[in-house]
Design brief:
The complex is a heterotrimer of chains A (351), B (287) and C (633). Chain A is mainly α and 351 residues long. Chain A has helices at residues 18-48, 54-63, 70-83, 90-102, 117-152, 157-169, 174-188, 208-244, 248-255, 260-285, 292-298, 303-313, 316-344. A five-stranded mixed beta sheet of chain C has the order 23-22-24-15-25, with helices on one face. At the A-C interface, α2, α3, α5, α7 and α8 of A face α1, α4, α6 and α16 of C.
């Protein structure tokens, strides 16, 4: 008779602990706000410590090819300084910055004046979010599935081979892998597009043609991200599973004749999955950093290259805008995980 | 000790391969001391020659011997990765264990600090550090900065393990038998945490070297000092892949992959050895 | 175990689905609804444009200039060609004739061409020129506000086709501001800007064109812009030369250099702006239809700029010309040319770029003077010039490159340059000792007893060739016992250069018209009145902060002499001689741009044999290419 003992996994909290859980939520929310505040302030300080002066960069951009008389430069410098709002003491600028942030306005970009920073980010973010979310989730799912199987069926040759491939791909510098894919699929066997988010001359609208083009252009970047990401999840899951496999209750279930796939899914994977879910949340939070090299190699119009260009141009407004979004993304991801963790693992007491 | 090593070598295939791989890479980095060319000189050999018997790994477009460049590069990169990994592991261990075990306000304070570090986007900070520090930014400085930024994620991981260990029976037993916090952490919890520390150390090395390569591709590297990132930077400047000089990129990549696969194999085979439960599982195993 | 076996099967099925998505075949970004043989695809070196929908070139940092905006859509009074031009170097574009100055150069009168129309049907008149000036003077902070405000006292349109400028001070080269060398003060449409309240925040989208093309569509993410030939192209200034060949122009961001090579090999990029020398060699080898400026080595088009080692002459160590000369004599230009360009460089010993009309005006006639130039090292007098260096480079390359290297003396001089300074470590030592330096234990020390250390600033990834040259020079100086180090100023070079925050850097402070012999384009800004005190930002172009009374005299004389006056050539040669004696910068070679043109769909590109304009696609004058391009069939 099959044993239907439910393994130590339960979702939801018994009523008595609800009160302490809510107190925990409140405390954790306070922590969240504090962390965001400190993070944004740090970003502000660091970006303003940059020795790159946006006014100088603008001037050199204008004059590097032009025939501008030297005496005109001083005039240009003062008009630009006024235009960019760089007059006023550092304290005034700091307060003005916070006032703007609280009304969700990042101000105009200094290197693409007067386009608002929010517009620039809003244009790039969907591309980044789409590509990185899809790649992260696929890499996570695939990696954990294969890793779990490999950890459980430790003697299966196919899985061992997959392990070797994953181990080999994981430490490969991402740039090399991206370049290889570029050459193989862009040049040697040119079936996939290697530049841009969608085909040229296709208006951006919710049409089937556009969506298909977006998917097509996302294949190579996503493939490169997945190949590099799978390895990490695979190895992590495999070692977690091989630890869980030695637990008493698993041995007990095996001896009791519970079917392998049941053991795998309910006993082993669900216990091993918890740290991996933590990792997933944090990776998803981190997508707002953008994938700079991906965007550079595949010409994908995302947030990463926006950030690097902004740093080069000394555009504090844009740097702060992007890093603020990124800080928000990651800290909220961590917050959500911290809230869910006690629910997933009831052994953890919320003290 | 020697007997243990000999047993492992004899009976554990993974250990053998791991030793082989790591050994060859270490040999490469030792050979750097015998290089006939100073590492920073260019145009000392004819450029763009494919691998041959005179130039084992070929030559670069800058007139350097890929083999000898690689010896220096792998040595510097390994040193870099090790320093980052060791320092950030220490930080992560101390903070993670302390935080997970103590709970209460210590936990909350440390986790606030931790979260602030997790939340800071890495690339702009590193790039900004480069701008501000310029040539005072040596590789050691970069290693310290990356170590200071790279402990946060794993500290959380260790903390979550510590939190679950805290509720286990043996912890309560140790507590009742009068062991101090430090004793419990070091003697009871550490062995459980070590496998994670090993695998996270390797992940950390992969991460730090990957970041070094990223910075190099973006142009923020100390080009006076050969490293894996530096070799890729120069290969980029000379569009090596398209020009057909594949050996300039292939051999550093192979060296990096060999290093990590080797380290990983070593780690899991020694883990299997240390962990008493898996040893029991292999009782009766001949291979 | 069944699920294990099923897994690979599932993965394979999923993977193949991916490829079904690509069944449409075409690998890349080619617009579907435009016939390929009517489309010319060019590279926009500005890369991905951040605020793509911005076409107001008169506001600073707004959008991109070289996405076709200045090349195809805008226009101004005159063009001056870096090469020989379609019909002579000087082209009267919107102007009907050359500028007329009064006797003391305080007034400039321009007669305009009749029958030119904006793309929305409004005729171009003098009012547009006046509006260009007054709008920018009224709104400081626009791209040309400062230049116009400091020069123009008043501007008037006595009739619809005449403009009179009254200048604040005598300026015989005021017209240069309206002359396109790369860009210039573009004329803005009065009828559009009149309705705009704040021109600094106006995006000018869709732009109204004065040139032969209008905007058809563009990528909001800034990766491509498509322009279409106007139906009324005869009512534009390029129309004088015939109907432009391509009906559509696409300016794209093809990505890093490897991808540009791949794109051209796939015939999806017709004109590449620039790639590394190795990429050029790969293209020349594999691309049967690829054509560069030169048919063979060195392939590249020499821009009228002059990369040089620029000293910060306000720095104590580099105040003495003896020290600067010593460092110059330690450089082996052959090795630098090999390191930077794999030999595909046109060297120049003098402070004028070896391109366009200059070799005939300056380099060739001054060979004699250079060969007899004497330098006093303190112990003896030497003649440092070696006229055969160009030929030596050609000889070095011939074994591996074969027939691609010319053997004819005149061709070698054209492609590789003439002579340079002989490497002379002994003379360098004597010069350093003359300046008070001493060599202790193989290491040079300054007169103050500190080790002689020099940092060479380069731009890193943004200018790879210059970085490579810098590395080689550093190595050569190190071998001589000087503590030289390379300093990569990735992204910060413009700021540091202006601030004088460097010992030396590799860059250019010399830029000329190219096709015209007048040097005032850069030379005027080298007057000591513009040299900033240490610590203050230096306006372009005198990055070396060199001031010399003899130079000032030459510059002041040039200011009084007309633009086309042959006397300006004589004065130019005086400058060259002074710069050789003082060596404020060490000229190296021309800035070679590896522009590659694909002849699969289009032929008729400008080349060294047929130098009717500059093919480098971000230059405003590249528009003259469009009227000569014909479909290849």
């Amino acid at each position: 008779m099959p044993i239907t003992w439910v393994p130590p996994f339960r979702f939801g909290i018994p009523g008595a602990r609800m009160k302490s859980y809510l107190a925990y939520v409140a405390r954790r929310s306070g922590q969240l706000v504090l962390v965001i505040f400190i993070g944004i302030n740090l970003a502000y300080v660091i970006s303003h410590a940059s020795p790159i002066d946006p006014v100088e960069q603008s001037i050199s951009a204008v004059t590097s090819y032009g025939n501008t008389a030297p005496d005109a430069i001083e005039q240009m410098r003062s008009s630009l300084r006024e235009l960019y709002g760089l007059g006023g003491s550092p304290i005034e600028q700091y307060l003005a910055f916070w006032r703007r942030i609280l009304s969700a306005d990042f101000g105009p970009s200094l290197s693409a004046f007067p386009t608002p920073v929010a517009t620039l980010i809003g244009r790039a973010l969907p591309w980044t979010a789409g590509l990185l979310t899809a790649s992260t989730v696929i890499a996570w799912g695939l990696g954990n599935l294969l890793g779990g199987l490999a950890g459980y069926y430790q003697n299966n040759r196919g899985l061992k081979a997959m392990g070797v491939i994953a181990m080999g791909l994981h430490p490969m510098p991402y740039y090399i892998l991206a370049l290889l894919l570029l050459i193989v699929f862009g040049f040697l066997w040119p079936v996939l597009p290697i530049t841009g988010g969608a085909a040229m001359n296709l208006p951006q609208a919710w049409t089937l043609e556009f969506m298909m083009s977006v998917l097509q252009h996302a294949i190579l970047p996503a493939l490169s991200l997945i190949l590099v990401g799978v390895g990490g999840w695979f190895l992590g899951m495999r070692s977690l599973v091989s630890n869980v496999v030695t637990e008493d209750y698993v041995a007990y279930a095996e001896l009791a004749g519970v079917r392998p796939w049941r053991i795998l899914s309910f006993y082993v994977m669900r216990n091993a999955l918890v740290p991996q879910v933590t990792g997933l949340a944090m990776s998803l939070g981190g997508i707002f950093n953008g994938a700079v090299i991906t965007e550079k190699v595949f010409g994908y119009p995302g947030v990463g290259s926006l950030l690097v260009d902004a740093v080069y141009a000394g555009d504090y407004a844009l740097v702060l805008g992007v890093t603020t979004i990124s800080i928000l993304g990651v800290s909220i991801g961590v917050f959500v995980i911290d809230l869910l963790y006690p629910l997933l693992d009831p052994r953890v007491k919320v003290s | 000790m020697a007997a243990i090593l000999r047993d492992l070598l004899r009976h554990n295939a993974e250990f053998r391969i791991g030793v082989l791989l790591v050994g060859s890479v270490l040999l490469l980095s030792v050979l750097a001391s015998f290089s006939p060319f100073p590492p920073e000189n260019v145009y000392v050999v004819p450029p763009d020659l494919p691998p041959s018997s005179t130039y084992w790994f070929g030559t670069t477009s800058r007139g350097q011997d890929v083999f000898w460049q690689l010896t220096f590069a792998i040595r510097n990169t390994l040193l870099f990765g090790c320093i980052v990994a060791i320092i950030s592991r220490l930080l992560a261990l101390v903070i993670g264990l302390l935080s997970g075990y103590s709970g209460g306000w210590i936990d909350r304070a440390l986790m606030s600090v931790n979260d602030t570090f997790i939340v800071m986007p890495l690339l702009p900070i590193l790039v900004l550090f480069y701008f501000v520090m310029r040539d005072r930014m040596s590789w050691l400085m970069l290693a310290l900065i990356m170590a200071g930024l790279g402990w946060a994620y794993d500290a959380r991981l260790i903390r979550s393990v510590a939190m679950s260990l805290k509720t286990r029976e043996f912890t309560q037993t140790s507590l009742f038998s009068g062991m101090s916090t430090r004793q419990i952490l070091v003697q009871e919890h550490l062995p459980y945490v070590m496998p994670i520390v090993f695998s996270s150390a390797m992940n950390n090395m992969v991460w730090s070297i990957g970041l070094e390569v990223t910075l190099a591709v973006l142009g923020f590297t100390d080009i006076n000092r050969p490293s894996i990132g530096g070799m890729i930077y120069w290969a980029n400047q000379h569009t090596a892949m398209v020009a057909g000089v594949w050996w300039w990129i292939a051999f550093p990549t192979i060296a990096v992959v060999m290093t990590f696969v080797g380290l990983f194999l070593l780690a899991i085979s020694t883990n299997q050895y240390i962990d008493p439960r898996s040893r029991l599982g292999r009782v009766g195993d001949v291979t | 175990m069944g699920c294990i076996r099923a897994l690979p099967l599932i993965l394979c099925v999923l993977f193949s689905q991916l490829f079904l998505l690509t069944a449409s075949g075409h690998g890349q970004g080619i617009p579907q609804d435009i016939p390929r043989k009517e489309l010319l695809i060019l590279e926009n070196p500005e890369g991905t444009v951040k605020n793509a929908g911005w076409f107001n070139i008169w506001a600073i940092n707004a959008g991109s200039q070289s996405n076709g905006l200045q090349q195809a859509a805008l226009d101004t009074l005159w063009y001056i060609d870096p090469e020989s031009g379609l019909d002579g170097v000087w082209d009267n574009s919107l102007a009907a004739d050359k500028p007329h100055y009064n006797a003391d150069f305080t007034e400039m009168t321009v007669t305009l061409r009749k029958g030119i129309f904006w793309s929305d049907g409004v005729e171009f008149t003098a009012d547009d020129v006046v509006a260009t000036v007054t709008t920018q003077v009224k709104n400081p902070g626009m791209r040309f506000s400062a230049v116009l405000a400091s020069n123009v006292a008043s501007v008037d349109a006595p009739d619809p086709y005449t403009v009179v400028f009254k200048l604040k001070k005598p300026n015989s080269r005021f017209h240069a501001n309206f002359t396109v060398r790369w860009g210039a003060i573009w004329i803005l449409p009065k009828h559009v800007f009149d309705k705009v309240e704040d021109p600094l925040r106006f995006d000018f989208n869709k732009p109204v064109s004065l040139g032969a093309y209008v905007l058809r569509s563009y990528d909001p993410d800034g990766k491509w812009y498509i322009w279409q030939l106007r139906d009324d192209w005869p009512r534009t200034t390029p129309g004088r030369f015939g109907k432009p060949g391509p009906k559509y122009l696409a300016y794209v961001d093809p990505g890093p250099p490897e991808k540009r090579v791949i794109a051209q090999l796939n015939h999806q990029l017709d004109v590449v702006h620039d790639i590394a020398p190795e990429g050029m060699f790969a293209l020349a080898k594999q691309g049967k239809t690829t054509r560069a400026w030169f048919k063979g080595f060195p392939y590249a088009h020499p821009d009228p700029t002059l990369p040089a080692v620029i000293f910060n002459t306000q720095n104590e160590l580099f105040k003495s010309p003896d020290v600067r000369w010593a460092l110059a004599l330690l450089i082996d230009i052959k090795a630098v040319a090999m390191a930077a360009y794999r030999g595909a460089a046109t060297i120049s010993a003098i402070g004028v770029p070896p391109t366009g009309a200059h070799p005939a005006t300056y380099h060739a006639p001054m060979e004699g003077w250079l060969e007899s130039f004497e330098l006093d090292t303190g112990k003896r007098k030497i003649k440092p010039y070696d006229p055969t260096v160009g030929k030596q480079i050609a000889d070095m390359l011939r074994p591996s490159m074969g027939e691609q290297i010319p053997s004819d003396r005149a061709e070698i001089a054209r492609a590789f340059g003439r002579g340079w300074w002989k490497t002379d470590p002994q003379a360098a030592q004597e010069l350093l000792e003359k300046a008070g330096f001493t060599k202790q234990g193989g290491v040079w020390t300054t007169p103050d007893g500190k080790p002689f250390s020099v940092r060479v600033m380069v731009e890193g990834d943004l200018r790879p060739v210059v970085t490579r040259a810098g590395s080689m020079i550093v190595q050569q100086w190190k071998q001589a016992g000087i503590d030289a180090r390379i300093d990569v100023a990735q992204g910060t070079l413009p700021t540091r250069r202006a601030a004088g925050d460097f010992d030396t850097f590799i860059g250019w402070s010399v830029e000329t018209w190219g096709g015209h012999q007048d040097l005032s384009y850069f030379l005027d800004s080298w007057h000591s009145e513009f040299v900033a005190p240490p610590g203050k930002p230096q306006p372009l172009r005198n990055w070396q902060r060199w001031s010399n009374p003899a130079l000032d005299k030459i510059i002041e004389q040039i200011r009084t002499v007309g633009f086309d006056d042959p006397k300006s050539i004589e004065l130019g040669r005086e400058y060259v001689k002074l710069a050789v004696k003082e060596m404020p910068t060490i000229p190296l070679m021309a800035y070679n741009v590896f522009t590659a043109m694909d002849q699969t769909y289009w032929t008729g590109y400008p080349t060294a044999e047929n130098p009717y304009t500059n093919p480098v696609p971000n230059w405003g004058n590249s528009r003259y290419m469009f009227v000569r391009l014909k479909p290849a069939s």
